[in-house]
Write a structure and sequence with these properties.
single chain, 500 residues, alpha+beta, Nucleotidyltransferase, domain 5, five-stranded mixed beta sheet, 17 helices
C-alpha cells in the first residue's frame, strides 16, 4: 500500500530544493542542487530555466531513496519559486531565452515610459503594485524593443514555479501571486488589466489560467514521469511564490506576524487580516484565502555577502568571516554600506541605485567591510519597519529564516538593528515545506491551514541589545541621508555602465 508523502520543490536563486514530508509533521527526506545567477551586464539578473528542470530528476531520486519510498508513495506535488521571474516559452514548450529575474534592473527606461503613459496612483490602486523595477510590464517592453525575434515566438509568459508546473503537467497556468506581483493584474476585478497589457505589448492569451495555490492544475504526464522519476498521474497544484510559501511554513498566519528572510535577496513580510496598499511595498495574497502579506524585498542581500567572499576572501568560510567581523565593534568604526548592488526594490524603488562603502579609511580591514555589509543589509530591513510604523503596523512577533539564519552574527546584528527578538525555526526548509503543505491541502489531506503548526518548532530566540539598538538607530539616519544626497548622481553611474 502506498504511503502518503508530499513532495515540495522550490526554485530558488542559488539552488533548486526538494523535500518529502509525511502528514504528521515530519520531513523524511530533502535535497538540493545548485543553480547559478548570471549578471552579464550591470543591473542584469538572469538564470537558465532548463537547469532548474534538469535538477529535478536527481532530487526526486535522492529524496525517494533517502525515504525508502517509491514514486507511487508521493500523493501530490507542490512547487514554489522566485516571483515575478519572467520566462518566455514557445508553442512547443521550449524556453526562448534565459529568465529575467525579479531583481533585474535593466528596464529603467521602460519603467520611465510606463510612468509617463499611465497614472501611477491609479495603477497602484488597481493592481496593488507601483510601477517599479519588479514590474513585469516594463521588462516585456524591453524585450520587445531589444529582442523582438524572441517576443515574436512567445506562446506563454510564465514564472519560475509556473514553468515547472507546466513541464510536469503540460498545462500552462499562472499562480495568483505571480499575477498580482506582475503589476499586470487588477486586484479588485481579479483579471488582467487590458491597458497595462497593451503597453507591455502582450495579450491575455499569452498567460495560462490564473489559479489559487492549492488548486490542482493537472497530473504528472507520462513524459514528465519518465524524465523525473515521479509516478504518472500524480496531482500537481499551482503552488506559491517562494517568499509566501516560506512565510506560511514559518508560522506567519496571523495579524502582526513578521518574517525576516536572510536569503540571497532579503525579504521582510508582514501578515494582515485586511487589505493595505502602500506604494513603498509589494502586496501579496496569503496562501490562506482572505489574508494578505505586505512584502518588502531587497534586490541583493545574501548575494552581496557571497560576492564579497568570492572576490575578496575565497580561502575563508563564512564562519571564519563571521569570526573576524565579530571582533569589530557595532558601527564598523565609521563605515556604512548601502546594499543597492542590483539597484533596489522596496522601499525606495530605484533601479539605478548602486552599492556604496562610505567612510573608508586606511584603518579599515576586511573584517570591517564584511561587518558593514551585514549592518547595511540590516538597515535595509529596518527601513521597512519604519514604513510599517508609519501605517500604524507593529510586529506582534518576529521570526527569522533562510540560509543567513545559520549565522549567529548576522542574526544578532539584525536583531540589534531592528530592536526585535528574532525566533528561529528549527531546521526550517523554507519554501519547499510550504509548497508540500499546499499540495496536501489541495488533495484534502489537511483540513485547516493552521495545521502547518505541526511542522514548526522554535529552536532559539536572538534577543536585541538595547544599547546597540540605540547606536544603530543613529547610524540609520546617516544611512538614509547618504542615499538621499547621492541619489542625483547615481543615474550618471548607470549611464557610464551602460556605455561601457
Amino acid at each position: 500500500m502506498a504511503r502518503s508523502l508530499l513532495l515540495g520543490i522550490d526554485i530558488g536563486t542559488t539552488a533548486t530544493k526538494a523535500i518529502l514530508c509525511d502528514l504528521d509533521g515530519h520531513i523524511v527526506a530533502e535535497g538540493e542542487a545548485e543553480t547559478t545567477l548570471y549578471s552579464p551586464h550591470a543591473g542584469w539578473a538572469e538564470e537558465h530555466p532548463e537547469s532548474w528542470w534538469e535538477n529535478i530528476p536527481g532530487l526526486v531520486r535522492a529524496c525517494l531513496g533517502r525515504a525508502h519510498a517509491a514514486p507511487a508513495d508521493v500523493a501530490a506535488v507542490g512547487v514554489s519559486g522566485m516571483v515575478p521571474t519572467v520566462i518566455l516559452v514557445d508553442a512547443q514548450g521550449r524556453v526562448l531565452r534565459p529568465s529575467i529575474q525579479q531583481n533585474d534592473a535593466r528596464a529603467y527606461r521602460e519603467i520611465a515610459d510606463f510612468k509617463a503613459a499611465l497614472d501611477e496612483s491609479q495603477v497602484l490602486q488597481r493592481t496593488g503594485s507601483a510601477i517599479t523595477q519588479q514590474s513585469v510590464g516594463p521588462k516585456l517592453l524591453w524585450l520587445r524593443r531589444h529582442e523582438p525575434e524572441a517576443m515574436r515566438q512567445v506562446r506563454y509568459v510564465m514564472g519560475s514555479y509556473d514553468f515547472i508546473v507546466y513541464r510536469l503537467t503540460g498545462i500552462p497556468s499562472i499562480e495568483r501571486n505571480w499575477a498580482l506581483e506582475s503589476g499586470l493584474f487588477d486586484l479588485y476585478r481579479e483579471s488582467w488589466d487590458e491597458a497595462i497589457l497593451a503597453l507591455a505589448t502582450v495579450g491575455r492569451e499569452q498567460f495560462g489560467e490564473v489559479r489559487f495555490p492549492a488548486e490542482i492544475v493537472g497530473t504528472v504526464t507520462r513524459q514528465a514521469a519518465a524524465f523525473t522519476g515521479l509516478a504518472e498521474g500524480t496531482p500537481v497544484v499551482a503552488g506559491s511564490a517562494d517568499h509566501i510559501a516560506s512565510a506560511f511554513s514559518a508560522g506567519v498566519h496571523s495579524q502582526g506576524d513578521l518574517l525576516v528572510k536572510l536569503g540571497g535577496a532579503g525579504d521582510i513580510l508582514y501578515c494582515l487580516d485586511h487589505l493595505v496598499v502602500d506604494p513603498r511595498l509589494f502586496l501579496d495574497y496569503h496562501v490562506i484565502p482572505g489574508q494578505f502579506l505586505l512584502n518588502g524585498c531587497m534586490a541583493a542581500s545574501g548575494s552581496i555577502i557571497k560576492w564579497f567572499r568570492q572576490e575578496f576572501a575565497p580561502q575563508l568560510s563564512y564562519a571564519e568571516l563571521d569570526a573576524e567581523a565579530s571582533a569589530v565593534p557595532a558601527g564598523s568604526e565609521g563605515l556604512i554600506v548601502l546594499p543597492y548592488f542590483l539597484g533596489e526594490k522596496t522601499p525606495i524603488f530605484d533601479p539605478q541605485a548602486r552599492g556604496l562603502f562610505l567612510g573608508l579609511t586606511l584603518t579599515h580591514r576586511r573584517a570591517h567591510l564584511y561587518r558593514a555589509i551585514l549592518e547595511g543589509i540590516a538597515f535595509g530591513f529596518y527601513h521597512h519597519l519604519q514604513v510599517l510604523a508609519e501605517r500604524g503596523l507593529t510586529a506582534a512577533r518576529a521570526r527569522v529564516t533562510n540560509g543567513g539564519a545559520k549565522s549567529l552574527l548576522w542574526k544578532q546584528i539584525t536583531a540589534d538593528v531592528l530592536g526585535l527578538p528574532l525566533e528561529q525555526i528549527a531546521h526550517h526548509p523554507g519554501s519547499s515545506l510550504g509548497a508540500a503543505f499546499i499540495a496536501g491541502k489541495g488533495i484534502g489531506v489537511f483540513e485547516d491551514w493552521k495545521e502547518i503548526e505541526r511542522f514548526i518548532t522554535v529552536e532559539s530566540v536572538v534577543q536585541p541589545d538595547a544599547a546597540r539598538h540605540a547606536a544603530y538607530r543613529a547610524r540609520f539616519e546617516l544611512y538614509r541621508q547618504a542615499y538621499e544626497q547621492l541619489k542625483p548622481l547615481l543615474p550618471r553611474l548607470s549611464a557610464d555602465a551602460d556605455d561601457a
